[in-house]
């Protein structure tokens, strides 16, 4: 009985494939992945877009990959937009340098602003109106809230075109690395909203601080 068990076990081991055969072959060349982008909120509206990822694994020896490229298109029915093109090359032209590049167009229509430093503060009633429909006819008054200053009192719009971020780094020895980078961003700020966006006629918190001389580079009412 013992001999039979041993022989059976030996036969089972002999049928098992070698460990090398269980390891999948490395991925090579280019592969593509995609992701749809959808969202909704009452301020920004319905958002739609897509993100596309292209990865070049080269001959399979590059870790984590030879090159990667991400392209994103996203915008909403209320004008919010985030369009980006991002590149990452861990071994740029087979060198020891890792290069990254990020090109973006960003339109943030409802960015928050609550003040500067210790003077910052938030009073919910200043921008709260439970019945938004009434604001379509009169944006400065909200029935039942005498403290109301405007639905967009704490908001401003910033439109960035372009945004450029470049970085390069390489390992020197052990944990030591050298890194260099450059960033350029051209942003236009608007502090007023139209009646279509339920914007009030009075100053926002951002404009109040600009008129008080707490901010530079912003023309109140622009």
From TrEMBL:
Protein's name in the database: Uncharacterized protein
